[in-house]
Amino acid sequence: MTLVKHIYRNLMDDDVFGIAAQLSYFFLLSLFPLLIFLMTLFPYIPVTQEDLLNLFRDFAPSGTMELIESNLNQVSQKNGALLSFGIIGTVWSASNGINAIVKAFNKAYGVKEGRSFLRARFMSIILTFAMILVIVVALILPVFGKHIGTFLFAQLELSAQFIAVWNALRWLVSSIIIFVIFIGLYWLAPSKKFACRSAIPGAAFATIGWILTSFAFSYYVSNFGNYSATYGSIGAIIVLMVWFYISGIIIIIGGEVNAFFSNRVKDC
Question: Is residue 63 a contact partner of residue 158, using CB atoms and an 8 Å limit?
Answer without folding.
Answer: no
